[in-house]
Amino acid sequence: MDTLYAPVGALRQERVCADCGGRDFVEDHAAGDIVCKGCGLVAEAHIIDERSEWRTFGDKEKEGDDPSRVGGASNPFMNDGGLSTGIGKLPGAAGGQYNALLRLHNRQNVSDRAMQTASREVSATCERLRMTDAVRNSALETYKDVHDAKALKGRTLKAVYAACIFVAGKREGTPRTFKEICAVMPDVSKVDIGRCFTAIDRCAGNSVPCT
Predict the structure, then answer these.
(1) pTM check: above 0.85
(2) Which three-class secondary structure string do you get for 74-93?
(3) SS3 breakdown of the chain: % helix, strand, coil, rounded to 5?
């Protein structure tokens, strides 16, 4: 049978051909028609295809079926959910107007860019420390709070990430010591983490014991 045609499913309402009285129909997916096999009468035209579309339109879509029909997950820590559209940069004089738009776009998304960087660093560090997604999300939530409050302005970013992970680990019941965190973040010292932790603790009004 031609792949463009398929028998009408049993779940469809029972049809009777108005011309020949037949009950055997096929669906032409390309045209969106339901056609009587006996006489060729088009019983219904331009119907909506209710089947799932499994194409992802990626470079590797021919390498196998990919049942993913959605985009990336939204990021609740970013103002736009991480679903914004970026503006590309064009070389030479032709890109003057677009590059101006890009600069304006970047100035308006400073907070989101900071969260993107934090998300990458915190996720990688939590993975090396074998910490759960709950800890990672808690650390990112803490970072967003202190970033929006500008409580750690001027501090080393990696020390801030490390302190947020330390706080999140305590909060989620899977703590890591400063020494353990420094072991996977060699560019950060225990003193720097301690200072950032103190600032975070003061900003949040908590009393998390320092280890």
Answers:
(1) no
(2) CCCCCCCCCCCCCCCCCCCH
(3) 45, 5, 50
